[in-house]
Amino acid sequence: MGQDDEVMLLGARLDGLARCFMALVADLEKREQLNGPRFCGSLRRMAGVRKKAAGQESVGVAICEIAELLDEARKTRRRLSDAG
């Protein structure tokens, strides 16, 4: 397996983990066992710290992106719930 293949495999695994994490968060929010906006605020604070740490900038960016995706998913669920 070449380096490009290994990078693609790692990326796919990380994407899978992120999707599982986001599905878990969504499930907890739907059950009202997690305050999604507060949780995303915590993620953003964590991301801010990581973005300032040497060698951790990309970690901070990824955490912030996940918080954004969670917020968008929450808005979509709310919009679909209001429409239906």
Explain this structure.
86% of the residues lie in helices and 0% in strands. It has helices at 3-30, 36-52, 57-83. The protein is globular and about 50 Å long. The chain is mainly α and 84 residues long. It has one domain.
Summarize it.
This protein is mainly α. The chain contains three helices and no strands.
Give the number of DSSP strands. 0
H and E string? HHH
Kindly give the count of domains: 1
Helix content: over 70%
**Please, what is the average pLDDT?**
94
Provide the β-strand percentage band: under 5%
Q: Structural class, from helix and strand content?
A: mainly alpha
Distance between the termini: 49 Å
Features:
84 residues, mainly alpha, 3 helices, 86% helix, globular
Topology:
Blueprint: H1 3-30, H2 36-52, H3 57-83
Helix pairs in contact: 1-3, 2-3
